[in-house]
Amino acid sequence: MLFGKQGSDDLVIRGARVVDAAEGVDAALDVRVDGGMIAQLGTDLETNAHRIIEARGLVLAPAFVDPHVHLRTPGREDEETIASGTAAAAAGGYCAILAMPNTEPVVDSATVLRSLAETAQAEAEVPVGFLAAITRNQGGAELTEMAELSEAGAVGFTDDGRPVVAPGLMRRAFQYSAVTGRRLALHCEEPTLSKSGQMHEGAVSAELGFAGYPSVAESLMVERDLALAAYERQPVHLLHLSAHESVEALSRAQVAGVAATAEATPHHLCLTDEAVRSLDANVKMNPPLRAEDDRQALVAGLRDGTIAAIATDHAPHARHEKEVPFEAAPFGVTGLETAFSALYTHLVASGLLKLETLLERMSAGPARAYGLDAPRIVVGAPANLVLLDLQASHRVSESEFRSRSANSWLLGETVKGQVRLTVAAGRVAFEG
Amino acid sequence: MAEIRVMRQDLLPPKEPPRRHLISIGDLERHDVERLLGTARSFERSLERELKKLPTLRGKTVVNVFYESSTRTSSSFELAAKRLSADTMSIKSTGSSVDKGESLKDTSLTLGAYDPDVIVIRHPQIGAPQLVAQYTGAHIVNAGDGKHQHPTQALLDLYTMQAELGRIEGLHVAIVGDVLHSRVARSNIQALALMGARVTLVGPPTLIPRGIGEAGCEVSHEIDAIKAADVVYVLRMQRERMAEGANYVPSLREYTARWGVTPERLRPGQKVMHPGPMNRGVEIDPVVADAADALIERQVRSGLVVRMAVLYDLLTHGPTGVQAGALHEIGAA
After folding, report:
1. CATH architecture of A63-376
2. What is the pTM of this model?
3. CA distance B116 to chain A (A)
4. How many domains does chain B have?
5. Contact A62, A376 (CB under 8 A)
6. Which residues of chain B have pLDDT under 50?
7. B231 and B117 share one domain
8. pLDDT tens-digit profile of A154-201?
């Protein structure tokens, strides 16, 4: 289901602190990679004429998986291509990403999906999985040919960017998608409540005068979709949660036995609606940045596992489209290259989250949410590794981005934690 | 001090003395407001001496860019600049390259090429003045951006209250009507709070923004709440908000019956203000609008001297010797 360049590099990464909580590993070890596979863990390993990477003082972890990326291809290759988006992913420490289908045209037929997979096979620096649309042209009226799409490699189905508004159709999608074994990933937004909303509805929107996009516009749809998933006994993945009410609803459903997973983005975990006071179009996204209690609920959900995955919702936009007044700007920010540093700086370095938890939610958590193999540091597993320098700090600037777009909320901010090496599918995909 | 987050580093202007702008009441400290009102008062006195034109800003250029229709604000800025002997130029979005789809950035760069000293801008979108500030070297005056701010309106309202009631601190002002869509209300709420007045917002729950109470004002949905106020500030009820299907209120008729400011709902001596243009018979009864206690024409006259004061202050107080509170630095982020 993942398409991209494969490699069979030979490496010895020496002396890093190897952290893989799922395997119960947290020790200074050497890791030998033979032909792209993890061959040996230990101390003072034979180097066998392999390339040696001295990693003393660095952290080696299973590489990250981003379950939510907009590659803008086909249609807006000026904003991102498979090559540029996956190069950005590699620089961010990712060994796999999932691309959303809201392109031009929409990924709603096996033909479009196969052509993307073919391009990715040749160009992708890290493997890419493609989600297909739930409804044709994401029009919210007719189901896509899900069986054929899943045979063509669709990892899951989503109309991300917009909700499936009609409850009847949503139910049919749950019922029919069962034949594919792939799950639905839902963008929860009640459109008559969010209509024309520019930012979270609260004290800041009241003061600034922006039309509000209330939390209940999300949580109401979360409740509906969880009710349908429960009724149809189908798994569901909830995209980019932002409101504390949504986290609470998710937690209740999980306790009741619904196979529901969810993701949260770095920007929702690090920022609140206070950031919108800057009127910077790079803090405009859907769902919007919410209040401090929402942010705290997301962090708590991440900590206790209610929220299994961190997703960047990397949404590149052309420069001229963001160089406009806030209200005229499109929703979305980039995130692939900054996710780890942002979260390490805002959550781990500040003591809100353990490093192991962050690493798990950026890697195994998102992989499992879609039934993909989680990257692991064990002998015999394909090498999907990220080498992190937690001591390094740098100021985020546009020139460092491999993405074709630079609409990052972190520009100018000094962050801690830098990716030094990414090995994806047995291949060195990034060195920095 | 307010600051602007510049989107990209390469957009940071070269190091230069900070430029001052009037974009939001939030940029001002109390002493800035007091200084501006004092300057306006001295301009008013000099105009009374039949000295209709002052040489103060000779050689300066003030450009008015209006992306929304306006009578009183655009005419008052233009006249204010002329009274101070500045050269003025007015650009309206209709009939300009904006009609041809030019972006605000490009229009700003074009206007900036003439090195104007001040750009006065009205725009339907929040944040437009900041954007113009980013791409030109001019001092920016916000003449209304979307539902965000209209700071010179709030200053002229303060000036009017000060002149008519002798004080602002301790006054009780009821702001009545469509607060949700009103930049005038937002600027006034901030300005009145800054100067120590008490503010009560009155209107239907659908037209009072959720969370506005945190700005330090009281909220009532009962029109009787205006009786306790020294000043009743009536907001314009925009007709499009009343359109069928908008559902902010069921009908204009019901709005007027429930929240219209009528003589019966006022007590003698209460001052009535309105930013204009009025919908007589909708949010304000014509008898109230024409009564001796209505300060509506007085507000328009205040507008001229207050805008003169703003232009004068921006162009003569900076960059040295200014109070930091009035600074609105670009590139400080």
Report:
1. Alpha-Beta Barrel (3.20)
2. 0.92
3. 21
4. 2
5. yes
6. 1-10, 13-15, 318-333
7. no
8. 999 999 999 999 999 999 999 999 999 999 999 999 999 999 999 999
pLDDT at site B329: 34
Spell out a b/e string for B161-195, using b for 16 or more CB atoms within 10 Å of the CB, else e. Answer: bbbeeeebeebbbbbbbbbbbbbbbbbbbbbbebb
B292 and B172 co-located in one domain? yes
Print the domain residue range for B217. 151-299
CATH classification at residue B237: 3.40.50.1370
Write out residues in chain A with pLDDT < 50, as ranges: none
In terms of domains, do B69 and B209 share one? Answer: no
Residues 130 through 189 of chain B touching chain A, CB cutoff 8 Å: 130-131, 145-149, 183, 186
Q: Which one of the listed residues A225, A313, A373, A389 is annotated catalytic?
A: A313
Instruction: Render pLDDT for B277-324 as a digit per residue (tens, 0 to 9).
Output: 999 999 999 999 999 999 999 999 999 999 999 999 999 864 333 333
In this structure, the strands spanning A2-3 and A128-130 are antiparallel
pLDDT of B218 reads 96
Per-residue 3-state assignment (H helix, E strand, C coil) for B185-241: HHHHHHHHHHCCCEEEEECCHHHCCCCHHHHCCEEECCHHHHHHCCEEEECCCCHHH
Determine the Cα–Cα distance for residues B204 and A214; give it in Å rounded to an integer: 19
Q: Which pLDDT score, from 0 to 100, does residue B18 have?
A: 64
Selection from B157, B150, B163 nearest residue B303 by Cα: B157
B7–A201 CB contact, under 8 Å:
no
Residue B175 shares a structural domain with residue B273: yes
Are B138 and B254 contained in the same domain? Answer: no
CA gap B114, B138 in Å, rounded: 10
User: CB-CB: which of A320, A327, A411 is closest to B125?
Assistant: A327
Contacts of B218 (CB under 8 A, 6+ apart): B198, B199, B200, B201
Phi/psi of residue B237, nearest 5 degrees:
-95, 110
Same domain, B203 and B81: no
Q: Note whether residue B331 is domain-resident.
A: no
pLDDT at B245: 73
B101 lies in the same domain as B213 = no
